[in-house]
Structure formats: C-alpha cells, structure tokens
Amino acid sequence: MPALPSCIIEPIWDQFQALIPPVVDTHPLGCHRPRVPNRVIFDKLVESLKWGISYEGVADAGCSATTIRRRRDEWIEADIFPQLEQLCLQAADKIVGLQLEDLTVDGCIVKAPCGGEASGRSPVDRGKQGTKRSVMIEGQGLPIGFVIAGANRPDSPLLEETLDQLARFGFDLPGEITVHLDAGYDSAKTRDLLDTLGCDYIISKKGEPLQAGKRWMVERTNSWHTRGFRKLQICTERRTRVIDAFIRLANAVIIVRQLIQRAWITHRWDTRPTRKP
Predict the structure, then answer these.
(1) Where are the alpha helices (DSSP H) in the chain?
(2) What would the pLDDT profile of 171-212 be if each residue is shown by its tens digit?
(3) Bridge-partner residues for 147, per DSSP?
(4) Which domain holds residue 20?
(5) Is 125 contained in some domain?
(6) How many domains is the chain partitioned into structurally?
(7) pTM of the model
(8) Cβ-contact 247, 125 below 8 angstroms
(9) How far is residue 138's CA from residue 251's CA, in Å, rounded to a whole number?
(10) DSSP 121
C-alpha cells in the first residue's frame, strides 16, 4: 500500500527531483557501486514521514538505513526541502491565491521521546520530553511558516520569530494584515509587538469563554500535521534541521492535496483522480 496517493506524490516528486543537484563522482577509478536511485530514497522518506517508521524499518536489501540518512542529509545541505515548500506556496498563490490578509498563529506540542536539540520538558505530558511547533497559516488554512522549539517554551515569545517567516513573500504582502491568536498570547508584550509590525489583531481574552473566530483553521492544520503524519505526531528525530525538513515535506503534501481537492470539482486533467484525495 503506497504511503500517499500517486496523484499527490507524483507532482511533488517531479519538482523535487528537479531540485536535486548533480552528483560529482570523486572516486579516482570511477568504480563505485551503483548509486541507489533518488526515487527509492524519496519514497522511503515519505513512508517514514507518513507512518512514523524508523529508517531501519523502511530499509531493505536494496537500500540500507545508513544510505537513507546519508542521502537525506545531502538533500538538507542542498536546501531542497525549503525550496520545495516555497514552490508549492507559489503554485497555491498562482492558482487559488494566498489570503495573507488573515493570519493565524498557534503552538502545537508533540512527544519527543528521544530528546534532542528541539526538546524540552512538556507542560502537558508530566514533564516528559516534547517539541513545540509554532505554526502560521493563511486565511484558507495552508501552512506558510513555522518555528521549532522545546515544549517548555511559551507561545507568545515565539510569535515574532514565527511572523518573520512572512519575509519569504518579499514585498507581495497586503497593506492590512490581521493576526488571530488565542488566549495564550493575551499580553501587553504581544500587542506592542503587533503594533510595531503594523498588524491588526484579534486575541482571545483570558478568563473568558473560548472565542473561536477564524482560529479553528489553525487547529485543523495542526491536526493535518499530527494525524496525517506519524513522524510529526511522535518526533523521534534529534536534530532540528531534520525535523525542519520533514515538516516542510509534510507542508508540501498538505498544499498539493488542498489544491487537488479544490480543483477536483472545477477542472479536468489527464491524471485527475476518480475521487477526492
């Protein structure tokens, strides 16, 4: 059973392989063993992301866990995962338009049983090791930025770094931006920051009944991350740059899936799936 439908993974792979730099053979005799195809490694990374399986679990006789890790690190060094995510966002902006005038930011804590660079004592899991993702979405729920931190970091101090991810869009930002936040950001420091950035804001009040507003979309996006990708639900990676790569790959899948779902009832194309993915 494939980890993801071909209608989703094939366009992502087509773009991913175009970003892979050519390999320079430095062996003096040119007699290396045949290199494992990039597509094999890519599929195994997707399986690990989707099902949360260890590299040893997805390895087989034709591709070892060491090869998967080595190729993954090569792709991280080549900055492929951020480029892939950015290209998916550009496609979404061109096809359906990103609604950057309404932004929502929220934190999501997940287990990190192996510890690592981005782990800390979780306040919601009896002090066990956990990782936090501060996720920013646009008005339709597509993830457009995130920050990785330990689970013991409060949401509010991560807000500025998360909003800084808007720099990826350059000067193509709307004149008026409204930021939607929950009660965890209800502080004078947060309001001063948003005033300095020139953003309007809607912040839930502490001690009052939950005011959902447009915030429900970020909860849905967090659910797409944790329920759709086991690797992001239980973070077993110890290095921040590897966690970053897997989140960006998951974001690419989410964006492409949403584009297909929206186009499914309005467009026809040769590889159109028979039902919504």
Answers:
(1) 6-19, 38-51, 55-58, 65-77, 80-95, 159-163, 188-197, 216-228, 230-233, 240-263
(2) 778 889 999 999 889 999 999 999 999 999 999 888 777 666
(3) 134
(4) 6-77
(5) yes
(6) 2
(7) 0.93
(8) no
(9) 13
(10) E
